[in-house]
Amino acid sequence: MAEKINMPRLSDTMEEGTVAKWFKKVGDSVKEGDILAEIETDKATMEFESFSEGELLYIGIKEGETAPVDSLLAILGNKGEDISKLIQINDDINDEDSNEKIAESNIKFEKKVEDSKLSLSDVSKEVEIITMPRLSDTMEEGRVAKWFKKVGDSVKEGDILAEIETDKATMEFESFYSGTLLHIGIKEGESSPVESTLAIIGDKNTDVSEFINKTIIKENSYQNKNINNEEVIDEKSDEINNDKENYIVESDSINLSSGIRIKASPLAKKIAFEKGIDLNKINGSGNNGRIIKRDIDNYKDLPSSLNREKSISIGEELTKSFPNSQMRKVIAKRLSESKFSAPHFYLGVEFNMDNVITFREQYNTIPNTKISFNDIIVKACAMALKKHPEVNSVWHEDQISHNYHIHIGVAVAVDEGLVVPVVKFTDEKSLPEIGSLVKDFANRARNKKLKPNEMEGSTFTVSNLGMFEIQEFTSIINQPNSAILSVGSIEQKPIVKSGKIMIGNTMKLTLACDHRSVDGVTGSKFLQTLRKYIENPITLLI
């Protein structure tokens, strides 16, 4: 299936790019990691590599031409594939009327960004404002997982500033500037929308306090609301000098037993009340020891009733809340969209696994080879999909697309939920290759080191909970796929074979289908083919 490649945003201030040089021409084969082109940004000329594989079918921006970020740069796909609709859609977007509509739809966002910033000349020509970058095409906000620099540190171009958690992965973010880190706008563990002020770099003697005050107030005015839906100032504005009465409304709590006034922001008090945290036990990090949101979030000492299980009173209600990660938010959003937009139906089967067990034992006698049952299932699915492209499909409002390339997503559990790295061209890979890829994906997924392109492009998904001794379950379709296979554990049980009862090994699988694109008979035929491959695994090698 053809894939559009757009002009990337290679720096936080980049609005358009110029193609300095193409390293591929139309008709050339492109592999993942190949350098496609040199792109000149507002700061440097950088090599741009491909995150996809296929034939270069179309070049949208020629050498020497300049185009805005997100303009169609190129199209990759299969040889001879019809891409006329993609090009037509791009042409429609580029006509004057469409541009006006796009501009109108983005005007509020652009105004928000512009209103939240001052001209650099208001501070110093040497100062650079670094904003939260858009590190994936679906990213709307990011969370700072870790800072590698602190205020006052020297920064060189190319230094890693921070690790940023997107909706897909945690990625290192490097600096495009040299200077001193003057301000950190988003602290570790905090989330903020794309284009929010992330940091300021400049000459070490530059005073940026006025800029920080005005910028933070304006950004917060768009982001924060209290329980009465009135605008409030949260943690960032808590740290502004409290002599700025226009910006801060001081809020104190009084300890009734001691009569001592406790200085805390309204947001900090609200969160502390919800979590059952005693403000007397917290040292504030705001101005003059004021307790702010960060202090509540970082407070580790749980209520005594949570620390000492034995002291919990009968009938006592206890709750502990945890903030949702970016990944968890996006997973929830997409699964909800899938469940409520695609009419799911389920087909359950039970396969005999005796031959698979023997096959795997023999295969793993090969030196330096170790494959899992899951690797065998993934390979078998790929072989079955070759014969049933209607299951390897995508639903569109005006058509159904059958994919003849097979990219199987393999669901991997991580602390924040579930990610689905993709084994590209699965049918063309050997069992050891599949096993090596899946193992590598799983390890890097748990360490948040997967790249966004490694989780894109799946045409079918396999989810396996057999290792957790789950016998059978159903999954939500990973759109735009039309189906997902849920794999249970191998169970030893009495079975009937050749008219006799004997001990055998079976496994239950459930295929969830999008009824818009896959009918019951279609899904059933796919499972019949899958049975032949799994119950006769030697056919996977033919």
Describe this structure in words.
The protein has 4 domains: 3-94, OB fold (Dihydrolipoamide Acetyltransferase, E2P) (Beta Barrel); 111-223, RNA polymerase II/Efflux pump adaptor protein, barrel-sandwich hybrid domain (OB fold (Dihydrolipoamide Acetyltransferase, E2P)); 235-311, Dihydrolipoamide Transferase (Irregular); 327-541, Chloramphenicol Acetyltransferase (2-Layer Sandwich). The strands form 8 sheets. The protein has a 6-stranded mixed beta sheet with strand order 19-28-27-26-22-25. Strands 1-8-6-3 form a 4-stranded antiparallel beta sheet, with no helix packed on it. The longest helix is centred in the first third of the chain and has 20 residues, at 96-115. It has 542 residues and is α+β, with helices and mostly antiparallel strands. Helix content is 26%, strand content 27%. Strand 20 and strand 21 form a beta hairpin. The protein contains 12 helices and 28 strands.
Indicate the radius of gyration in whole angstroms: 28 Å
- Strands of the widest sheet, in order across it, are 19-28-27-26-22-25
Q: Could you give the count of β-strands?
A: 28
CATH class of the largest domain: Alpha Beta
Class based on secondary structure composition and strand pairing: alpha+beta
* CATH superfamily label of the largest domain: Chloramphenicol acetyltransferase-like domain
CATH fold-level label of the largest domain:
Chloramphenicol Acetyltransferase
Q: Can you give the mean pLDDT? A: 80
Q: Whole-Å distance between the termini?
A: 26 Å
Total domains, how many? 4
The shape, in one word, is globular
Quickly give the CATH architecture of the largest domain: 2-Layer Sandwich
The proportion of strand residues reads 25-35%
Determine the fraction of residues in helical runs and give it as a percent range.
25-40%
pLDDT below 50 for ≥5 consecutive residues: which ranges?
A: 96-124, 220-259, 302-310
* Biggest sheet record: 6 strands, mixed
The total count of helices amounts to: 12
